[in-house]
Structures are given as C-alpha cells and as structure tokens.
Design goal:
Length: 568
C-alpha cells in the first residue's frame, strides 16, 4: 500500500514539474513581448490617438462622455462624429436635463449643433422657465443607426436625465448589418477584445500591417471645431462599389426593420427600467426635391417588357419639360409594365405636381421614396414602427414629419424645409423644437409659462444667431457640398432641375440659407421671370419666415431686393 502511495506521489510530482516547466517555457516565450510592451509604454511609443477598436459603437468601454474635473464632456474619441457637448458632473438642483439621441439630423448637419433642434429647444424652454434652467445635451451621431444608439441610451441613463428624446430612423440601411456576433459577445470576450487592442505592441503591429486603417465616412472639410469625419461607422456608400452594393432585397429590408423595432423597444425599456421619461420623435424627409438614389425593375420582368418599358420611359423624358401631361401619359404606359421603378414614380410625381394634382403627386413622391433601392430616407413602414413602439410602450411621440409637412406647400416638403434628402433647414429645426416644447410630456414635467409670441421667440433666436462665427454658414455650405458628393447627387441633378417658379424659389431658398445671396437671386430672378405674381407672394412669405426665425437682416435684404426686382 505504501509502495502504491509512493508511486502516486512520484507521478504527481512529475506532473507538477511538467506543468511548471511548461509555464516557465511560456513565460520565457512571452518575456520579450512583455519587455517590448513595457519599453513602448516607458517611451510613449505606439499610443493610440484614435479609437481603433473595430467594435466601437458596441463597446460600453468607449463612452460618449468622459469626466474632466467638475464636468463631463464629449470624449476625444467620439468628438469626431458627435458634437462637442458638456454638462456638470453633479447636476445643479435647478437644472432640468434632457439628452437628445439620434443621427446627423439631431447633430444639425450640414451645420453644427448650434442650429439643431436641441439648441432651439433649450433656448425656447429657458425663455419660458422661471426658477429652473433647461440643459439640452445633443447626442446626435453622424451616420449612427439605432443599433449604435442603444449603448448611448444606456450610458446617458447614468447622468441623471430628466428626459430622453429619441429621434432616429434615417440611417438603418447605411451599414451592412452583420453585427450579431459583435453585439452578442459575452462580457469576458468583450474584455479580451478591448484589452488586446489596448496593447501598444498590438497597436504597432496593426499599424505596420495596415489593419488599423478602417475607412472613414469620407472626411468632410475641416470646420471650426476641427476634423469632422467618422471613425467607427463605415457605410456601404464608402465602399468602392458604393451604390452597386444596394440591390432589391425584400428579406434584407424585413430583417433591418425587425432590428430597428427591437432597438427602439430596447431603448424605451432601458429608460423605463431606470424610471426616466422618454419621448420618441418621428422624423420626416425631403419629398419634392429629392429623387430616389437608386432604382431597379421589379423582379421577373422579361426582356420584351423591359424594352417596352424603356421606350415609354424615354418618350416621357423627351416630353417632360414642355408638356407634362403628355409626358405623364407616356409614363403611365411604363407604369403598367413596372410600377415599382422608383425613378419612374418620381418623374410621375413631378408631372402631377406641375399640372396641379398635388394630392396624387404626394402619393407618388412617397411611393418613389419607399421604392428607393438605396433608402437614405426613413421608409414609411419604419416611421410607422416608431408610432407602434410608442403606443405599445405607453410613451408619447412627437410627429416632426407631420409638422414639417404641414409647413410645406401642399404638404410636400422640398428645399423649403430640407437642405438635402433628410437634414432640415434652420427653420425646419426651429419647427421641430417648437413641436417638442408644446408636447404634453414636456409641459407635464416642467412649469412652463405661456408659449412665446412670434416677436419674443424671434428676439431670443436673434441673440443666439449673433453668437455664431462669421464663417458658420459658409462652412455649412462646404459640408453640404461634401454631403452631396458622398450621396452622388450630381447623378440626380437633371431629375430635380427647376421647371417653374415654385421650383426656382425653393432652389433659391436653399442657397440663401447658406449665405449665398447672389446664387439665390439667380434662382429668384428666374422665378420672377417665370411667374412674377407667384414669385412675389412666395418671397414675401419667405421674408416673414426669416424674420420669425430671428434673422431680420436677411429678411430685410430679401424684402429690399424683391421690391427693386418687382419695380423693374
């Protein structure tokens, strides 16, 4: 028995020595790398100046805000694609704190957050509050879709918010949605990923191998706040195949829609679990002056049908400028063959618009948007999901889409309210803010005085405009040019070329918004030559709108020049 025990002890000792030898061998093998890592840190070599974590956006170890003494400010890693914001680390007792979450619409593109609806909301609330101050923090991330906003929503619950406003839905198709393996990582796996990528040895190796150069969202021009590109969002349009990667894929659309709805529910549930009021916003988009970005035929079209469709479509195109009614008749022949081609639907909408059938035109504009193969505007069924989630969860929804539609002629918004496909004009942002300020949810949470008069609001906004730098609007124009290049809008210029006085006025309004008064008056003069009565009426209304926005100087210049032009 003792001999057996002795053999077991001897065997155990051998096993321990074997494992010790193996651990020593591994330690010796790792020693050079440990020494290298220590050396790199000692001499500050290989430090990451940018977040190279490919899981950024899904990693709660990369917060949006970082503490700096007595305040939280936007992280230097996130400042490339979120606006620079700050708020007190310890919330003052008289502060009502709101976080606004969303994409570049919330951010305020193509301008900055200074003229986005969260800022106008803060200004209006503070003009109506006594004994309290509103602090509205802009958490709009460029190209951020709902799946990326979920972590932002979870983070903001830590900062004592009194209300969270969520406005999302335009960016759901921007990325190739293959993130399940990332978002479903365990805490341990996430820690391993994060730790490995924080090693300077790994950082240098990735840099030498070119693995740390994830494509950006095509850097826009530098603005007053610095570099303006996106580091962790790589959209499909940034890929070399760009629009070609978008195909008609109903199953894919359905999956993206299901995930969008799930993310909305998750964010609402997160707020409710933390007893934080949440308000959803349904966003709108440009219908009249934004052709679909990509069109495809319906599945199953034969070669003969495609030939006959093309003949009818081209005939309509040849008649479009001079005779919209005859063009529409040709387009209807094409529609009978394929009623799902987005470009055809948009051209039919424009013809209907020009011959005065506005209600039917709106229906076709909406169909063109919903059939867009590259949906950079929120689809109607996604907009319906926002309302459904709000109703099911018992939380309020503010319909910004309806508010801007009502402000547009014939409820068909174009460049009068949107500067491109989805980003509202400054007046559009102010209307969204006014809708939020009048919402029952906000009025139940805050002791708000009566709504401001037009003159009171204009004076408050005028003071804010006076704080903006002189190059604010010209910088915005450069960003808009970049956005147009990114979306390849030059392909669509012929589709949206002005045809009548209304079109020229909207084109001029878009130019005037960026301080390009000479370019604007080229368009306004064309409108006056086309239909002086209509142009004069629209420009007078626009001058009044500018005055109500708090921009009396622009309004006065417009009115003076209009009087001169009409007198001639």
């Amino acid at each position: 028995m003792s001999e057996s025990n002795s053999k077991c002890e001897s065997s155990g000792a051998k096993q321990r020595r074997l494992w010790l030898f193996r651990l020593l061998f591994v330690a010796l093998g790792l020693a050079p790398f440990v020494a290298l890592e220590i050396g790199l840190r000692a001499f500050q070599v290989g430090e990451n100046d940018e977040p190279k974590d490919p899981f950024a956006g899904f990693n709660e170890r990369n917060p949006l805000f970082e503490r700096d003494g007595d305040i939280y400010r936007t992280s230097r890693f996130r400042g490339q694609y979120f606006p620079e914001q700050q708020f007190a680390a310890v919330k003052p007792s008289d502060e009502f704190r709101i976080f606004c979450l969303g994409g570049s619409t919330v951010y305020g593109k193509p301008f900055l957050s200074d003229t986005a609806f969260p800022k106008w909301l803060e200004l209006e609330l503070n003009a109506r509050l006594t004994g309290k101050r509103a602090k509205v923090v802009n958490c709009g991330g460029i190209s951020y879709a709902s799946h990326r906003l979920l972590h932002v929503a979870r983070e903001t619950t830590q900062y004592e918010p009194d209300l969270i406003i969520l406005a999302t839905g335009h960016n759901e198709f921007l990325e190739d949605r293959t993130y399940y393996s990332l978002k479903s990582r365990s805490t341990a796996q996430e820690w391993v990923d994060h730790t490995a990528l924080s090693l300077r040895t790994v950082a240098l190796a990735r840099r030498w191998l070119g693995k740390d150069k994830a494509p950006d969202l095509a850097p826009s021009p530098e603005d007053v706040s610095g570099s303006d590109h996106v580091g962790d969002v790589v959209t499909r349009l940034d890929d070399r195949i760009g629009f070609a990667s978008f195909k008609r894929d109903e199953a894919w659309r359905t999956r993206v829609g299901e995930e969008f709805q799930t993310m909305l529910k998750e964010m609402v549930a997160t707020c409710q679990a933390n007893e934080i009021p949440i308000l959803l916003v349904r966003l709108g988009s440009n219908l009249r002056d934004c052709p679909p970005f990509k069109s495809e035929h319906k599945p199953g079209l034969s070669l003969d049908e495609e030939r006959r469709w093309r003949e009818a479509f081209d005939l309509g195109g040849s008649l479009d400028i001079q005779d919209p009614e005859q063009a529409l008749a040709a387009y209807r022949e094409a529609e009978a063959i394929d009623a799902r081609h987005a470009q055809l639907l948009y051209r039919m909408a424009r013809c209907l618009d020009r011959i005065g059938q506005r209600e039917l035109a709106r229906q076709y504009y909406l169909q063109a948007k919903n059939e867009d193969i590259c949906p950079l505007r929120m689809l109607d069924d996604f907009a319906a999901m926002v309302e459904t989630v709000a109703q099911d969860a018992g939380v309020p929804m503010v319909d910004a889409q309806a508010a801007l539609d009502r402000a547009a002629a014939d409820a068909i918004p174009g460049f009068d309210l949107y500067l491109d496909h989805v980003h509202p004009s400054i007046g559009g942002h102010q209307r969204i803010a006014a809708k939020l300020a009048s919402s029952p949810r906000l009025n139940s949470l805050l002791p708000l005085a009566a709504p401001l008069s037009h003159s009171q609001k204009a004076e408050a906004f005028k003071q804010h405009f006076s704080t903006l730098p002189r190059n604010y609007f010209s910088n915005g124009r450069r960003r808009l040019e970049w956005l147009d290049q990114w979306a390849q809008r030059q392909r669509l210029l012929a589709e949206v070329a002005p045809r009548d006085a209304d079109d020229f006025i909207r084109q001029g309004m878009r130019r005037y918004e960026f301080g390009n008064s000479e370019g604007a008056w080229e368009s306004f003069d064309q409108a006056i030559k086309s239909d002086s009565a209509t142009a004069e009426s629209l420009l007078q209304a626009y001058a009044l709108e500018l005055r109500n926005q708090g921009r009396p100087r622009l309004a006065g210049e417009l009115a003076q020049r209009l009087n001169t032009a009409v007198a001639q």
